[in-house]
Amino acid sequence: MAINHSLFIPLFVVAVATFCFSCYQRLQLVAVGASENRFDNPAERLAGMFSYAFGQKRVLARPYGFNHFFLFWAFMLLLVANGAFLLEGLFPSFSLAALPAPLHHGLEFLFDIVSLVALVSVAIAFVRRVLFPPAYLGNDYTSPRSGEALLILAMIATLMVAFFLLNAAQIAMGQPGNWKPVSSAIATFLDGFSGRPLESIATVSWWVHAVVLLLFMNLLPRSKHMHILTAIPNCYFRSLDKPNVQPREEFKVGNRFGVSKVEQFSWKDLLDSLSCTECGRCQDLCPAHNTGKPLNPRRIVHDIKVNLLDNGSALKHGDRGVVPLIGPQGEGSNHEDALWSCTTCGACTSVCPVLIEQMPKIIKMRRHLVQEKARFPEELLNLFENMEQRSNPWGIAPSDRGKWAALLGERPFKAGETDYLFFVGCAGSFDSRAKHVTVALATILDKAGVSWGILGREEQCCGDSVRRLGNEFVFDKMAKENVALFKERGVTRIVTQCPHCFSTLKNDYKQYGLEVEVLHHSELIAKLVEQGKLKLPKQADQGKIVFHDSCYLGRHNDTFEAPRAVIKAATGKAPVEFERNQENGFCCGAGGGRMWMEEQIGSRINLERVKEALKQQPDTLCVSCPYCMTMMEDGLKDEGAEQVRVKDIAEVMAEAMA
Amino acid sequence: MLVISCIKQVPDTTQVKIDPVTNTLVREGIPFIVNPYDTHALEEGLNLKDRYGLRSVAISMGPPNTEATLRKACALGVDEAILLSDRAFGGADTLSTSNVLSAAIEKLGAEESVGIVFCGKQTIDGDTAQVGPGIATRLGYTQLTLVDRIEFLDLKRNVIRVRRKLEGRHEIVEAPLPVVITVVRELNRPRYPTVPMRLAAQETEVKVWDNSVLKLDVETVGLKGSPTWVSKIFSPERDKGEIIGDGVGDPEGTANLLIDKLLSKDLLAV
């Protein structure tokens, strides 16, 4: 078969030029973003890139991910095959046959088998999309059967079929096919042909393969399949910390606060938007989306991308974009109701196969609304004022903070004398139900011989809610004051009974130079159990216990085992699990400052979770967070299931010790 | 035209305790806040600024640390903040306070006509509700107290119509400018400061007017100008109640007991 090089070469040059131009245009768009350092720790970044991108770690977390895994690796290997194919088209003398025979044969075999794998994967994908699409593939702007998705599948299938026909025709014409088992098998069907028809099949297949390949390449940067180009770098540039720790802001006259225009996002945020594969997994797990709120994390990323593309040419020339980033619903704009629906549970960021950071983008936009516009749901006005004036969400007098300890006597923290600062937190100090947990934990620590002390009225709110709500200015002040207080008082170890305090002190305060050991009470109790410091004379009979994961303990801090270990030690058996548990756990609805807001749109998140709990017919619903406690108790009341008790793990343990 | 909001820095009374021995307020370590009613006075001044283009000024009499309260007003958007502070103003009751505030308003009025003076209906530390009416009396302005709605402001005819919130009824009143309006909480929802405004407020100048500026007779200000004399402050004794009935074991009987008790004390009408 003779290739018409003089026809192919100009075609190739044009296709490569347009491809490069498209990529350059997209890169220019990414470059309009604000600077952000994502270049540190190259070794860690590379390791993650291999595991997430090449190892497809998160893709494989769901069964169907295997299909993508095969397609991905087929793609990687066929890059070599297609590279050789293009070179053959450009240079008459180029051929892989010039390689040493064993290598050449090995490659021929590999390409042949891998092409079949790709073809089968594409067929499975096609059948899944058309006949058995999971609900989360579609949404209000795309469907599993979207033209683009099916076109891409068709193109890949065409490439594979053309590859096989080309090889089969060449084998039928007498080329050796020993190392191409699939092509050889197809060649037997071409037995009836000879001479010119075979020649035609080969030539047509070659050109179909060539043209589709060049078209495919050009389609990538202009479609959701841009992820083929951006996903790998996106994994490299991922956030090395848990992505819910947001960058600090500098409060200086003339600075901007938060994001109201797409170009105020960092370049990584914009790269994220071009990397979305539209797999829909974030949408599938999002508690807000699942309860009929206008928030869809995938839509947030999509709208940022559309906004960037629509405003792109203006932005590249230093002009202003016309499509508002925050505005009435419409492609390219994020509705404020969507931004306020987020519970910051982190399900989206922890499930995304290409490590897009959806939730942090929401916080950035909240920061703009709160700090530059003072626009937020009206319930938050009280919260913000209470936080600023009295450093707790309810506006209770700070002098009442240490009152819960009255029964236990004065327990001040003294550096050098007390092992742990017990950072009680606002709920633990003021909420009448959570105070029981505080006392339970204090009792456990006393019985285990752990010395602890509190700051009493000097303790302040950690600022979790205000930070997640975008009120970074107030959080900044609180964090600085708390860190200064910890340093002044010589605190080196902290135990909290609230995952929000825990995560904020442990992760967020690192940005303020706090480097102390911070433990959630589940971790400390589990440690005491392990060290045999807790005497457990009886096993607490709590009936059937179902354990609900707190997002800020579990997903945001990977602490899944400790609370379960505590329950097991106290009751002698492991708790029953929710259908959605651990990494896939479902928020109670109170994170991200939602604790202090009305839930007026859609159904209630806590009811959804309580209904899921009731499927297990539990006697006790066990939690490890005061917010979850409130939400679950309220939910059970609303469901008329008050026979189910809600208990914190500390209470379960304290009862076993009594 | 000016719209002036009078604000006061008060101790956060939810955190104030009375020293049982000396019968004085324990102020140590108690944070100061803007008197909650005054935040509504401030907000309405800003509303009128936004809607009618009036120039909004916040004034406060108090010790030098009151500057913090005025900076908050700046962060919310007032055009000018003036602190009335002088050792001679210290220890003032409501009469001498209204003397100082009136003098400041008069001085502002000499430069630009005053349309409306807003005050909170009362402060949460003194609870007298006298300073607003006092200013109106000293200046001869019309006095509109307990306002919960501005019906309209007509700058052509120089009149304002407001709704007063009285016990069990509302009263709609129209008055010629200038007026002193004391406001209740229902009037508006105070805004929240934006960060750029807060940062700018850090650098805004808060003018300080002492008595060399106001030139008041020292016999009419501060302790000397205060005929009110506080002889004693104390927490009223409260009798501890009794627990009757058994709400868990016999909710119905307990509810009946409660109703009987309320009826016997004449707290419920049959």
UniProtKB/TrEMBL annotation, chain A:
<dbReference type="GO" id="GO:0016491">
    <property type="term" value="F:oxidoreductase activity"/>
</dbReference>
<keyword id="KW-0560">Oxidoreductase</keyword>
<dbReference type="GO" id="GO:0046872">
    <property type="term" value="F:metal ion binding"/>
</dbReference>
<keyword id="KW-0479">Metal-binding</keyword>
<dbReference type="Pfam" id="PF02754">
    <property type="entry name" value="CCG"/>
</dbReference>
<keyword id="KW-0408">Iron</keyword>
<dbReference type="GO" id="GO:0005886">
    <property type="term" value="C:plasma membrane"/>
</dbReference>
<dbReference type="InterPro" id="IPR036197">
    <property type="entry name" value="NarG-like_sf"/>
</dbReference>
<keyword id="KW-0472">Membrane</keyword>
<dbReference type="InterPro" id="IPR051460">
    <property type="entry name" value="HdrC_iron-sulfur_subunit"/>
</dbReference>
<keyword id="KW-0004">4Fe-4S</keyword>
<keyword id="KW-0812">Transmembrane</keyword>
<feature type="transmembrane region" description="Helical">
    <location>
        <begin position="200"/>
        <end position="220"/>
    </location>
</feature>
<feature type="domain" description="4Fe-4S ferredoxin-type">
    <location>
        <begin position="332"/>
        <end position="362"/>
    </location>
</feature>
<dbReference type="InterPro" id="IPR017900">
    <property type="entry name" value="4Fe4S_Fe_S_CS"/>
</dbReference>
<feature type="transmembrane region" description="Helical">
    <location>
        <begin position="149"/>
        <end position="173"/>
    </location>
</feature>
<dbReference type="Pfam" id="PF13183">
    <property type="entry name" value="Fer4_8"/>
</dbReference>
<protein>
    <submittedName>
        <fullName>Electron transfer flavoprotein</fullName>
    </submittedName>
</protein>
<dbReference type="GO" id="GO:0051539">
    <property type="term" value="F:4 iron, 4 sulfur cluster binding"/>
</dbReference>
<dbReference type="InterPro" id="IPR009051">
    <property type="entry name" value="Helical_ferredxn"/>
</dbReference>
<dbReference type="InterPro" id="IPR017896">
    <property type="entry name" value="4Fe4S_Fe-S-bd"/>
</dbReference>
<feature type="domain" description="4Fe-4S ferredoxin-type">
    <location>
        <begin position="267"/>
        <end position="297"/>
    </location>
</feature>
Automatic annotation (TrEMBL), chain B:
<dbReference type="InterPro" id="IPR012255">
    <property type="entry name" value="ETF_b"/>
</dbReference>
<feature type="domain" description="Electron transfer flavoprotein alpha/beta-subunit N-terminal">
    <location>
        <begin position="22"/>
        <end position="218"/>
    </location>
</feature>
<dbReference type="GO" id="GO:0009055">
    <property type="term" value="F:electron transfer activity"/>
</dbReference>
<dbReference type="Pfam" id="PF01012">
    <property type="entry name" value="ETF"/>
</dbReference>
<keyword id="KW-0813">Transport</keyword>
<dbReference type="InterPro" id="IPR014729">
    <property type="entry name" value="Rossmann-like_a/b/a_fold"/>
</dbReference>
<dbReference type="InterPro" id="IPR033948">
    <property type="entry name" value="ETF_beta_N"/>
</dbReference>
<protein>
    <submittedName>
        <fullName>Electron transfer flavoprotein subunit beta</fullName>
    </submittedName>
</protein>
<keyword id="KW-0249">Electron transport</keyword>
<dbReference type="InterPro" id="IPR014730">
    <property type="entry name" value="ETF_a/b_N"/>
</dbReference>
